């Protein structure tokens, strides 16, 4: 049976262009790589597998029609037999109408039904009805190029519904069950016809931003080669572009001038380039007819200028990954069929058959779509590699035997000078300074000697003050959770305020995108907290009302502690005074991980449970700790009056009558008002990226939060780190810290700032709280660069290509059960980003192709040692680096789940396993490990193979 018609073609076009991106440019990055690799299989699914299935399902229509006709024929036959008995005539002979009776009315009716049975077919209108049903069902979940998983429960009176389970209040958003990845550009071929010519604009290269950060602006420019190809015979012209940052060469090639005639270097707009692009294209057009077509004026612009404007105003899309697309669409299809395909007023059997066809074909399409979506989810959730690890440590902590190497490193000496620490060439030039040494300036040998020497002093992880990670924050948290699960005391985050200025959210679903972004990361971040821990979410009026609902969902309404109003102390904009009151505050939402166990802390790290502030315990708890503060205090009628370290008088109690100020939920930051305990003083000098005197978020604010909720050595986590205020303050207060940032200012601001913090007295110090806490510098932290989702996609290869197709041929009837999910997983297994175990033979040379730094493709080594430490959740005790048996050994000794663990890495090519065994056993004999992990083959008793453990923990 042929399946054809306008409705069928419209449905196939929906699958090709909307779901499988066939109308996008054939770019070799991101999800485009997968779609382009699999285009043939997808096309075969649409044109062959699916259409064959549709034809097969339409046979149900045919069978239903035949069944109805057979029933009518049988009824007509009985009617003729009654006539035979009544009139005594024999109309049937041998089961057929006798020739002499064929002209009788009943015989004619019988023969006509028999003819219809022989010719029964599914009509085109019946086909169209099924395809229209499928088109309506699938297309309703796409809006402006984005898949929006809003539950549609009817197309009649009520269009939408939410998954409601009897909650008193339910927070729901359009992308409720999706991971937010980013908002980015969609590159589609652009075509138009003019005076018989077909013109195609195509993007051949795109340097896209990774994560969701606004970096340097990108522009559409002509491709360097084959930018224009004209086919005069077929009247077609292909014009090719690149999308990337401007180079110095581009600025000289595409000269944009100001009104004054000066050459413009910054602030260039795409529209300014378009007029230059138009002239360049016309110059390269040799065919007179084509040039005339492109130059034709339409509304003061040429045809070429008009379409360049449309093409270069990019289509943006919110990139989401559904957490369970098959379950969602199966549920929606079931409801769609029951409410919009079936009709209780129409009990025609063919109507039920139509519903079954829609269901069966719909499920096949859903299975195929879910295969690709599940693969993207798999790539998103896969733990990411640590690409590089370096350490920053102050000179006072450098082992003496390594100082000569430090002072002999020209790159390090130059960085000190660039940081404003002066010219250092000899040890005496240090003069007691604590200058930060960055291991990135040294070879691996220096780093290894440093780590080994330091770990001899004690548990290595205890020596580390903090960790910085450059990477997308969900991916960073997803990797680090094994090591820091339930170990963080306080989370403070200051995310983008849902303004659309920090992140590239699409306007139509800005709120939904922001909530999805925050929910994904808050839910994961909550798992880092101790039971006694707490979280502060810093927002403004753009999102504080959403944030409260969101935190109630994640933390529980009972764990809400305070909504703190922070009066920021500077006017947000005088122009707002015309229409409304001037905004002059932000909001901090304060939640406990578990209200029963959450704690405040005093200055001597004594723990005061939040729940203990009542009449029965306030005397006992407060009196005992005030004595430690060395302050005068009296307790009378549950009123406590005391002086703090700065001499100001405060009161804590149920009533305040005779002086002192309670700590309220309004915190003021103002230089022109004295509000005592509620004031957060702005120092004259606060760190900002541009060196301004006042920053929006002063260190005093973070000091209050950290001192209230943590004790010395507790861990503070900020995964929207910005310029690093929270890590700087945590370090000065003697807390350990974790900071995650994905912006380019990770190097220019965060690392730069933390190096100044470690230096103590420097060009940037003292600033913030340094004077008040008598900060003298010193410290040791590590920082990582992380593989990004875009890198994962970029490294996807198909080493097993074709093997999946063999299963289709062997088991064609089961093809729908196999589909894309299994084929993609099977055919891409062994890609570098999905764990290429062959590279574990030389583990220190494992490499990935990286594009996430926005500077084109680079082939970089991967830090398998640190990646595996995180995957194991290993607390590192010691590092040992050996060069024996003509190979390098890296041995990590640590602990996880109260078990002693040894991890051994070495190249295994041409290895003597007996010598290898002796070396390993000698190296770990004094450690007595409960578990031993070794890469590759080994003769060590009861060892576990790193590769298999790595694969399982990484999720591949």
The CATH architecture assignment of the largest domain turns out to be 3-Layer(aba) Sandwich
Strand content: 15-25%
Helix/sheet category? alpha/beta
Can you tell me the overall shape?
A: globular
Total DSSP E strands: 36
The helix tally amounts to: 29
Strand order of the largest sheet: 15-14-29-16-28-27-17-18-20-19-26
| CATH H-level superfamily title of the largest domain | Vaccinia Virus protein VP39
Task: Describe the sheet with the most strands.
Answer: 11 strands, mixed
What gap, in angstroms, lies between the N and C termini?
43 Å
Radius of gyration: 35 Å
Please name the CATH topology of the largest domain: Rossmann fold
- The first-level CATH class of the largest domain is given as Alpha Beta
Helix content: 25-40%
Number of domains: 5
Low-confidence stretches: 572-576, 610-616, 629-661, 670-677, 690-695
| Overall pLDDT metric | 80
